[in-house]
Amino acid sequence: MKKIRTPYLIVMFLILYLPILYLVFYSFNAGTTMKGFAGFSFKHYGELWQDTRLIDIVFETGIVALLSSLLATIIGTLGALAIFRVHRGAVKGALLSLNNVLLVSPDVIIGAAFLILFTTFKFSLGFVTVLLAHVAFSIPIVVLMVLPRLQEMNPDLVLAAQDLGARPTQVLGQVTIPAITPGIVAGFFMALTYSLDDFAVTFFVTGNGFSTLAVEIYSRARQGVSLEINALSALIFLFSLVIAVAYYFINRLNQRQKAPELREKVK
Amino acid sequence: MVEKMPILEFSKVALSFGDTEVLKEIDLVLESGKFYTLLGPSGSGKSTILKLISGQLQADAGKIFFEGQVINDVPAEKRRVNTVFQNYSLFPNMNVFDNVAFGPRLKKMSEKDIQDKVKEMLGLVKLSGFERREISELSGGQQQRVAIARALANDPEVLLLDEPLSALDYKLRKELQQELRNIQKRLGITFVFVTHDQEEALAMSDWIFVMHDGLIQQNGTPEDIYDEPINHFVADFIGETNIVPGIMKHDYLVHFVGKDFENVDAGMRPNERVEVVLRPEDLDLTDPANGKLVVTIQDQLFRGDYYEITAVDDDMNTWQVQATNPATVGARVGLTFDPEDIHIMRYNESEAAFDARLESYEDEEAEAALQAAKDDQSQSGGQG
Amino acid sequence: MALSFKKQKQGFTSAYMGIYGLWLLAFVVLPLLLLLVESLQDQNHHFTLANYQAFFTSGSYLAMTFNSIWYAFLITVITLVFAYPTAYFLTTLKNKQFWLLLVILPTWINLLLKTYAFIGLLGQGGLVNSTLTAVGLHPMQLLFTDWSFLLVAAYVELPFMILPIFNALSDIDPLLTAASRDLGANSWQTLKKVIWPLSMPGVKAGIQAVFIPSLSLFMITRLIGGNRVITLGTAIEEHFLVTQNWAFGSTIGVILIVAMVITMLLTQDKQKGGRS
């Protein structure tokens, strides 16, 4: 199986990255379409720089993502704590099932249901409704990321802290939260990913005045897109790549620092 | 002896989880400054007692006193007891210093006092210089030391230890047993130690409570409990033992395995059915002609400082013998023992009745001994 | 006197439950109820079952239901077939976390951007067709076909299938593989009898993570599938945002939810049955 491993993985990674590299490649096209390369040029980056509407939308998309992830992380963590402390199995099961409803519902249905909700209560569609929708559909994934950490946590840690005289707030702040931090961080990043990746729900609950990047590209794509979108894609890709590589190396550095101590322990 | 006020007292304390009676009307009294051990198999209720003392559990019935005051309704955080948990339960997000300083910081001690306290505590558990280490870098034994230091840093009157050594290997366990005992002596506070390891209990304790089925089966000094187990459970649980059924014909004469034997127990009804206990280390091998019992060697294991020999008598009772010299498997040999090696247990005798009986005939014996000594003296006087 | 630890903690727990419960009510229970109510109304907001009647008597909607599930099924199968070996091979690599990161990275590029890339790749004069021409074949109509929809949907969902399978495979104790080999199983038998069964939780999570979103990929059907209404997801979008017939859109939504709940209950029962 070793023989087919490398070629298989090379092909899979090519497939995964082909569309993205294709976009990046044509962002340097002197021509105006993705058909035929007419020479190297940065002119689409210039166009992007001039397109203040698009730049605003990129920032607004980021703000919605950060803000909604933050709120969803807080509410989701509280939810996980609440569910964790429910002792009756039936109630716990019911809460978890309700929690998972949005995770297993197709986006179009969530979008449609939220649209009905917001219009029933006379919300004007725009930034607020998009933010509320993103918070709402991100909460369940945060709960699912945090809850296992609480379950894995040694329950005696809480008893030990209480035994040493800590109040509930001190136990929460000094023992519980640090123990579940990896889950909270993972939940935050999942929420961020959900928010940045979302198109369908936003498409339903956004009004005329507000748009996220996905919705904007959708409406532009139907009219035929200019290559400034390619330039934007290239920049987003570069940005993601930098974050990913930085994350990877910070992680490795942390592990390296631990390594000599481990060796000492072996002695 | 001066009557000290007990530091902790249980009066008819009971607790059930659903239909399971975890504790059935427990009475116990703990004096200040001693090392107590709750010994029993898992599910015997020993950890439940710890949790009632620390306040993690509430009793269904009965009263718990701390220095004479009822503390049933005092919340856990207000009790002057601290716990060393079985799995250490050190906070993984804090280093050694911060773990030990956890309690003092909550008490808002000054940073200088906290420094001193942590230093003192780490010195006590022989971990000076480990302040900046992360918990993940410590071995199991070191982690347990930190857990002990952390609990002691809160200046408890009573330290509760819930099977703290059970996860450690044999050698380390021995070492820490010694140290725990030394720490307790140095601080002079009360330790309540929970274990299922009888060897550990015998080695460390001033006083042992043997627990089974939610009841205290027997309590006493390690020597009392080893030498004079009250019933089959205690005899079997404490150390290797041979237990055979017998009949107490009259005082100082017991009948078992088809023969009569002189012994030193008394106070039973004539011809009462009893259980006879003989410890393996009290049995000696000899040739069949000189043996009080004749047995066939079945099996033998080398245990380092002795041979563990399994033999059967003609009634198919199994006998465990500890011998310094090896035997031959299949050989017929004799077993000898002294009258004082025989310990008699009555069926269903309560601890109080047991103690009373022991006292009555021991007094008798003492008087008899006194009388014998006098006789002896007068005789020798006559001669001289 | 301050409240006891227990009482105070109970107070906090109630507060957490209050906040979380409010979300459950406002954004889970209420929207679904409103969706149901909406589906049971006619144009004048009177109660009616007409929408459901219309759905179940219409040949085209029944066909579309079948189509949606069929496409979602195909997308799931295609991604599973490609994802499983990928995940498996990735777990055998030295710096597997690094390579996993490279699998996750494309998911950070918005779905619409990737879809847009395929318009270029598959279009006339795009990379695929120019390659075909270069090797002497005739260019083909690739865009706006069912195949292009399947291809793009499977591409978009691929990482979401690889991830849970990778995690499940990573959790398997390597000693189990060693034990299997030690007992005489070759690598194929080990894969079939040990690794595959143990990775089932990941496979199931992957199927769930791909199948459900595949029902709502209306933007891909619009941009790549040629603007035809071929799945229920597209139909819901059409009724809500184009023809403004919310009642009928809600009806389709409710039917889709009921169908999914039934599917999940059935698969759950199977799991339990299999274990006992």
- Can you tell me the CATH class of the largest domain in chain A? Mainly Alpha
CATH class of chain C: Mainly Alpha
The gyration radius over C-alpha positions of chain A equals 23 Å
Unreliable runs of chain A: 259-267
What does this structure look like?
- The complex is a heterotrimer of chains A (about 270), B (about 375) and C (about 280).
- Chain A has helices at about 1-25, 45-50, 50-85, 90-105, 105-120, 125-150, 155-165, 170-195, 200-205, 215-220, 230-265.
- Chain A contains eleven helices and no strands.
- Chain A is mostly helical.
- Chain B is of the alpha+beta class and about 375 residues long.
- The longest helix of chain B is centred in the C-terminal third of the chain and has 33 residues, at about 350-384.
- Chain B contains ten helices and 20 strands.
- Chain B has two domains: about 10-225, P-loop containing nucleotide triphosphate hydrolases (Rossmann fold, 3-Layer(aba) Sandwich); about 240-345, OB fold (Dihydrolipoamide Acetyltransferase, E2P).
- In chain C, α1 (about 5-40) crosses α13 and α12 (about 230-240) runs antiparallel to α13 (about 245-275).
- Helices cover about 80% and strands about 0% of the residues of chain C.
- Classes of the chains: A mainly alpha (about 270), B alpha+beta (about 375), C mainly alpha (about 280).
Q: Which helices and strands appear, and what pairs or packs with what?
A:
The complex is a heterotrimer of chains A (267), B (384) and C (276).
Chain A: H1 2-27, H2 43-50, H3 52-85, H4 89-104, H5 107-120, H6 127-152, H7 155-163, H8 168-197, H9 200-205, H10 213-221, H11 228-266
Helix pairs in contact in A: 1-11, 2-11, 3-6, 3-8, 4-6, 6-8, 7-8
Chain B: E1 8-17, E2 20-30, E3 35-39, H1 46-54, E4 61-66, E5 69-70, E6 81-84, H2 96-100, H3 102-106, H4 111-124, H5 140-152, E7 158-162, H6 170-187, E8 190-195, H7 198-204, E9 207-212, E10 215-220, H8 222-227, H9 232-237, E11 242-250, E12 253-256, E13 259-262, E14 272-278, E15 284-286, E16 293-302, E17 307-313, E18 318-323, E19 332-336, E20 343-346, H10 351-383
Parallel strand pairs in B: 3-8, 3-9, 6-7, 7-8
Antiparallel strand pairs in B: 1-2, 1-4, 4-5, 9-10, 11-12, 11-14, 12-13, 14-20, 15-19, 16-17, 16-19, 17-18
Helix pairs in contact in B: 4-5
Chain C: H1 5-39, H2 50-57, H3 59-91, H4 96-104, H5 111-122, H6 127-134, H7 146-171, H8 174-182, H9 187-198, H10 200-214, H11 218-223, H12 232-242, H13 246-275
